[in-house]
Amino acid sequence: MVDVVVTRVIDLNVDDVYPLVLESEKEGFHFVRRLYDEYVSGTNRFDRDGEALFVAHQLNQIVGICGLNQDPYTQCCTVGRVRRLYVHPDFRKHGVGGRLLFNVIMEARRFYTTLTLRTDNPVADQFYRVIGFSTDHLPDNATHWLSLNADSD
Predict the structure, then answer these.
(1) Under 8 Å between Cβ of 80 and 114
(2) How far is Cα 128 from Cα 106, in angstroms, rounded to an integer?
(3) Is it the case that residue 153 has pLDDT exceeding 90?
(4) Which residues lie below 8 Å from residue 5, measured CB to CB, with a gap of 6+?
(5) Cα separation of 81 and 25, whole Å?
(6) What tens digit of pLDDT does each residue of 1-36 get?
(7) Domain range holding 51?
(8) DSSP-assigned letters across all residues of 79-137
(9) Which residues contact 55 (CB under 8 A, 6 or more apart)?
(10) pLDDT for the residue numbered 2
(11) Do 117 and 81 contact (CB within 8 A), yes or no?
């Protein structure tokens, strides 16, 4: 495994994440730009109850990012949402995405009974299925969901 450290970020330095924005856009992904723009504007700072932002970094370079929000598409306060998971292409297939998602899931278990997400990427679809996310009986505006109940493990 590459020497990458995953940490929870309370105050994201947007200058540090900007190279990741540019890299993601080269691949045609715009959701990291949305994370950046929403963080700068204050629209989404992952700072409400039950929310968190995690980054993976190697030395001083951010190589991955993933957030947890209250699910904005449900009125139920027991549903969290995985947001903006992205790993730099040079760091994929080394467990970085799994480590980011593990941190999100562990944090989500403290607040939610269900975790949802939306993706249209077939590689991401397989990644989430391997982790244990389901595509059956989907809630609105989600492509995958995971039960966080201890007795469903």
Answers:
(1) yes
(2) 15
(3) no
(4) 56, 57, 58
(5) 22
(6) 469 999 999 999 999 999 999 999 999 999 999 999
(7) 5-152
(8) EEEEEEEEE-GGGTTTTHHHHHHHHHHHHHHTT-SEEEE----HHHHHHHHHHT-B-SS
(9) 6, 7, 9, 12, 17, 62, 64, 65
(10) 64
(11) yes
Total structural domains within the chain: 1
Q: Give CA–CA dist 74/115, Å, rounded.
A: 12
pLDDT band (50, 70, 90) for residue 55:
very high
Domain with residue 15: its CATH number is 3.40.630.30
Contact yes or no for 107/135 (Cβ under 8 A)? no
Return d(Cα 27, Cα 108) in angstroms, integer: 29
Q: How many residues does the chain have?
A: 153
User: What amino acid occupies position 114?
Assistant: T
pLDDT tens-digit readout, 58-112: 998 999 999 999 999 988 889 999 999 999 999 999 999 999 999 999 999 999 9
